[in-house]
Design a protein that fits this description.
With about 130 residues, this protein is mostly helical. The chain contains 5 helices and no strands. It has helices at about 1-15, 20-45, 55-65, 70-95, 100-129.
């Protein structure tokens, strides 16, 4: 979620396409809200969340920050399609097989928005090809 927010901010600054800029703004808004909910849930469960994205996610941010123009737009949207697919798979697994009822409920609640993000990302990416 933190990665999506940082990449969304980057997209708002660097994207050429208004659709990509708008998608980035949606990522910041929606993932900030989801992150806040997750922080609250983690606090209730005495789970410590990392303060920043992991090393592999930081590499994505660093790599994209070096790009510009249409290359940025294509690579950002390609990453959003792929990342959202991976997150949907993880959230579906948690929603179905999770052991903690609150965490299962959080995953189930987030799935429609994640699927909507994936569909939007795919549509925008396909339009950039």
């Amino acid at each position: 979620g933190m990665t999506e927010v940082q990449l969304g901010e980057l997209a708002q600054q660097k994207a050429v396409s208004q659709k990509v800029k708008d998608f980035g703004a949606m990522m910041v808004k929606d993932h900030t809200q989801a992150n806040d909910e997750l922080k609250s849930l983690a606090g209730m469960k005495n789970i410590t969340l990392p303060p920043a994205p992991g090393e592999d996610h930081m590499k994505h941010i660093t790599d994209l920050s070096k790009e510009s123009g249409k290359d940025f737009d294509k690579d950002y949207m390609k990453m959003m399609v792929s990342d959202h697919k991976d997150v949907i798979d993880a959230f579906e697994k948690t929603s179905n097989d999770g052991k903690d009822a609150d965490i299962k409920a959080f995953a189930t609640k987030m799935l429609p928005a994640l699927k909507s993000h994936h569909d939007a990302a795919k549509m925008i990416y396909d339009g950039l090809k």
